[in-house]
């Protein structure tokens, strides 16, 4: 039992005593948020099928806290953009991102969402970071479900270490202003 | 209320202003928008509704237009296969094989029997994956999530077989001009045998969950029906047309890749409603399994997997490093300087959704002059506004799922 | 009894005389050219005739030939199919380069509605009498017709492509 390869999650740093555990608010909030990220699957093309495979029984994404996929932007934490976004679709993506409530994160899954992919044409948006800020990029065409899960895990690291005050900080407001998002 | 959603000169705004119901209620407009949990892919429908009933629909597509036909005019023939993958991405080997067969028709190449049988096996596996997705997602839309989880496991098994053959799971880019890029390993055949053993009981279980299920029958029988004449006028092909009663199948009408050697029936429905489409797809999965078994039994001896066309097929690497002719062929093929006749070809294969056609017009250079894809989804989606007239909103969702509209094929 | 090419050719020439020409078997599909003003009559004849029975429209697309003479710059290609005899036929109609227009066949074949819109969207060919001729795949605000040969494939607004890495110099692009 003691030499098993299972990685036990350790609690954040803090003071333990009889009946209490004191730690920083950032750590607790980060831990809670990271392990319950509800995705909004914005699946447009082939990467969407690999997402379906990720949510299915074999590569279950629900283990990581994404049990409930939310199609309503107000109730979702992370926006998974999977597939090619064309210029016709970009305003709609923008609207969905603006409707999401803070804190919100974006993962660009696949080559098309990250940078336009193989479609260097007049009608395809060359990367969704032209319209919304992106946190994690997952390359691949399409990425294997293990890669998508890896992307979600990297996002979890980001979320754990994020400060509670980040969303009202001037740097974040500047980032949003650079995308013209009020 | 309608001023917020629609510009006042829109047709629906005028209809709403003029029409008054007896009980004082007004008509309303609903935007079944591009991002919707139940529409598989992004297309928009603006619906004019009377309460819960749909009176009219106005579809908008093109939200994932990636200009395949424009890209194809700038790419040599080998580099167009990844584009064909991404059209109907649920069954990409069929698209690939269709493209290779178009090129073989253009160049006049005869593919050996064994390679043709292997192609048949891969295409039927792809058809099974397409129907798995369509039927299980139809189940999810009616509320039955379990069927989807059960049969998706078998999609993983088929992905493993694809990986043995070509290395990729979903967008396979499989095959070459004249056959395959490498022979199938014994592991691929072993996995195929295991799949043929394990899948039929699972598919039987899936069918039993739905075919006599009271709730499913209530939701799908007499919903979204279409007559055979209307279907032919709207250009329907594939399972949607066969559910309406017309037994047109490209594999039977213009057999390609040795389909005439196999014995299979073409399942046909009666009324073209959602239940018939579901049952036709179920029956086609059984037929595909039977075709795969026949192909495995009748597979010719030997291990040739490609035609002897050094002009178009890359020679093995050992020969490239040791022999002058192979080096020259390799160079010419990679640079795209292969002899291409000036001609026009139309070739069609039976895709998961119907007749997938490739219209290729060449002018002798290394890229096509014009390549047009005859995409079945694009053509039969035109009938959708008519099919949902008078239906309830949730029926419209079920009808859309059962039509199996794949956005990549719709917009290309 | 199978439908022979000579049979089709004879029937069409005796009904349409000089408006159908250039009959040949291109690989495995019988191809012919027709003049633009007779196209609706031709397609209706092919659909309704009891011997020919080409009752299914498989495909409709356009092609741009900028190197041809100005009367033959655009082409509209129709593929029809007869399921009873398993026979396909292809009809090509060449149009003027300045003002490409042709009558719609959407009242004969309902499936040609969106196919003609797509051809308009890509090439700017005007289909006279079409119920709703507007763009279908591209954005509505687009003014140019992207599949024409002079239109570039790549997104011209890109700023992040370094020309050095693509071999593009002032002299070759």
What distance separates the N and C termini of chain C? 58 Å
Radius of gyration of chain C, CA atoms, in whole angstroms: 19 Å
What is the CATH class name of chain C?
Answer: Alpha Beta
CATH architecture of chain C: 2-Layer Sandwich
CATH H-level homologous superfamily name of the largest domain in chain B: Cytochrome-c3 Hydrogenase, chain B
Instruction: Identify the overall geometry of chain C.
Output: elongated
Mean pLDDT of chain C: 86
Helix content of chain B: 40-55%
Beta-strand segment tally of chain B: 6
Count of helical stretches of chain B: 19
Silhouette of chain B: globular
The third-level CATH topology of the largest domain in chain B is Cytochrome-c3 Hydrogenase, chain B
CATH topology tier name of chain C:
Beta Polymerase, domain 2
What amount of the residues of chain B lies in strands?
5-15%
Counting H and I runs of at least 4 residues, what is the number of helices of chain C? Answer: 3
Return the average pLDDT of chain B rounded to an integer. Answer: 89
Class computed from helices, strands and strand pairing of chain C: alpha/beta
Q: How many discrete domains of chain B? A: 2
Order of helices and strands of chain C: HEEHEEEEHE
Given as residue ranges, the uncertain stretches of chain C (5+ residues, pLDDT < 50) are none
Order of helices and strands of chain B: HHEEEHHHHHHHHHHHHHEEEHHHH
Describe the structure.
The complex is a heterotrimer of chains A (182), B (412) and C (173). Chain A is an alpha/beta fold and 182 residues long. In chain A, 33% of the residues lie in helices and 14% in strands. Chain A has helices at residues 25-34, 46-55, 90-99, 111-115, 145-160, 170-178; strands at residues 14-17, 20-23, 39-43, 78-82, 105-109, 136-138. In chain A, helix 1 (25-34) runs antiparallel to helix 5 and helix 2 crosses helix 5 (145-160). The longest helix of chain A has 16 residues, at 145-160. With 412 residues, chain B is mainly α. Chain B is built from 19 helices and six strands. In chain B, the strands form two sheets. Chain B has a three-stranded antiparallel beta sheet with strand order 1-2-3. A three-stranded antiparallel beta sheet of chain B has the order 4-5-6. Chain C has a single domain, classed as 2-Layer Sandwich (Beta Polymerase, domain 2). Chain C is built from three helices and seven strands, in the order H-E-E-H-E-E-E-E-H-E. Chain C has helices at residues 5-16, 39-48, 112-123; strands at 20-26, 29-34, 56-64, 74-82, 87-95, 101-103, 126-128. Chains B and C meet through helix 3, strand 4, strand 5 and strand 6 of B and strand 3 and helix 3 of C. Chain A: Its main location: membrane. Chain A: It is found in: Cell inner membrane. Chain A: Keywords: 4Fe-4S, Cell inner membrane, Cell membrane, Iron, Iron-sulfur, Membrane, Metal-binding, NAD, Quinone, Translocase, Transport.
């Amino acid at each position: 039992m003691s030499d098993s390869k299972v990685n036990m999650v350790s609690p954040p740093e803090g003071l333990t005593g009889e009946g209490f555990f004191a730690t920083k608010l950032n750590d607790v909030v980060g831990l809670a948020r990271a392990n319950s990220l509800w995705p909004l699957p914005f699946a447009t093309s082939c990467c969407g099928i690999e997402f379906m495979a990720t949510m299915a029984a074999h590569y279950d994404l629900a283990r990581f806290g994404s049990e409930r996929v939310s199609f309503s932007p107000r109730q979702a934490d992370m926006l998974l953009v999977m597939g090619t976004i064309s210029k016709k679709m970009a305003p709609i993506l923008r609207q969905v991102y603006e409707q999401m409530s803070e804190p919100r994160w974006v993962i660009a899954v696949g080559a098309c969402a990250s940078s336009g992919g193989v479609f260097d044409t007049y009608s395809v948006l060359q990367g969704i970071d032209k319209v919304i800020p992106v946190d994690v990029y997952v390359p691949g065409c399409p990425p294997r479900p293990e890669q998508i899960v890896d992307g979600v895990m990297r996002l979890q690291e980001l979320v754990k270490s994020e400060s509670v005050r980040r969303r009202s900080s001037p740097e974040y407001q500047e980032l949003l202003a650079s995308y013209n998002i009020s | 209320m309608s001023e917020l959603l629609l510009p006042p000169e829109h047709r629906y705004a005028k209809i709403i202003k003029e029409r008054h119901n007896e009980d004082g209620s007004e008509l309303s407009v609903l935007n079944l928008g591009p991002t919707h949990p139940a529409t598989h892919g992004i297309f928009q429908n603006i619906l004019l509704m009377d309460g819960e009933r749909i009176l009219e629909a106005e579809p908008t597509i093109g939200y994932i237009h990636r200009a395949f036909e424009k890209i194809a005019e700038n790419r040599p023939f080998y580099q167009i296969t990844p584009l064909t993958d991404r059209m109907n991405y649920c069954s990409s080997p069929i698209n690939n094989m269709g493209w290779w067969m178009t090129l073989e028709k253009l160049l006049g190449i005869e593919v050996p029997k064994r390679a043709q049988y292997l192609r048949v096996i891969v295409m039927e596996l792809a058809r099974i994956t397409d129907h798995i997705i369509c039927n299980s997602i139809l189940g999810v839309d009616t509320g039955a999530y379990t069927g989807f989880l059960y049969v998706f496991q078998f999609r993983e098994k088929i992905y493993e077989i694809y990986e043995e053959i070509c290395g990729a799971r979903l967008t396979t880019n499989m095959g070459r001009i004249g056959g395959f890029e490498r022979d199938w390993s014994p592991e691929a055949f072993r996995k195929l045998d295991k799949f043929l053993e394990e899948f039929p009981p699972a598919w039987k279980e899936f069918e039993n969950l739905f075919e006599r299920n009271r709730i499913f029958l209530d939701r799908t029988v007499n919903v979204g029906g279409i007559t055979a004449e209307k279907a032919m006028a709207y250009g329907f092909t594939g399972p949607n047309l066969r559910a309406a009663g017309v037994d047109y199948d490209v594999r039977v009408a213009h057999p390609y890749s040795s389909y005439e050697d196999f014995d299979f029936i073409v399942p046909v429905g009666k009324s073209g409603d959602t239940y018939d489409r579901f049952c036709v797809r179920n029956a086609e999965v059984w037929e595909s399994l039977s075709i795969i078994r026949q192909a495995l039994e009748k597979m010719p001896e030997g291990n040739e997997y490609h035609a002897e066309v050094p002009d178009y097929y890359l020679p093995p690497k050992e020969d490239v490093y040791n022999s002058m002719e192979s080096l020259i062929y390799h160079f010419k093929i990679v640079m795209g300087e292969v002899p291409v006749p000036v001609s026009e070809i139309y070739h069609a294969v039976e895709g998961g959704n119907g007749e997938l056609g490739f219209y290729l017009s060449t002018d002798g250079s290394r890229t096509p002059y014009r390549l047009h894809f005859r995409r079945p989804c694009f053509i039969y989606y035109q009938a959708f506004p008519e099919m949902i007239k008078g239906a309830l909103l949730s029926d419209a969702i079920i009808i859309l799922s059962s039509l199996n509209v794949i956005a990549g094929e719709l917009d290309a | 009894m199978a439908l022979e090419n000579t049979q089709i050719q004879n029937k069409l020439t005796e009904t349409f005389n000089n408006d159908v020409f250039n009959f040949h078997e291109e690989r495995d599909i019988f191809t012919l050219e027709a003049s633009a003003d007779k196209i609706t009559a031709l397609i209706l004849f092919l659909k309704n005739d009891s011997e020919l029975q080409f009752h299914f429209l498989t495909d409709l697309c356009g092609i741009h030939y900028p190197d041809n003479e100005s009367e033959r710059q655009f082409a509209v290609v129709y593929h029809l199919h007869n399921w009873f005899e398993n026979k396909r036929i292809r009809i090509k109609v060449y149009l003027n380069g300045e003002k490409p227009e042709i009558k719609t066949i959407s009242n004969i074949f309902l499936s040609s509605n969106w196919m003609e819109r797509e051809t308009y969207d890509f090439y700017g060919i005007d289909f006279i009498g079409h119920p709703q001729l507007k763009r279908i795949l591209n954005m509505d605000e687009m003014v140019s017709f992207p599949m024409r040969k002079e239109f570039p494939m790549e997104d011209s607004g890109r700023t992040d492509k370094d020309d050095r890495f693509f071999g593009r110099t002032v002299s070759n692009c």
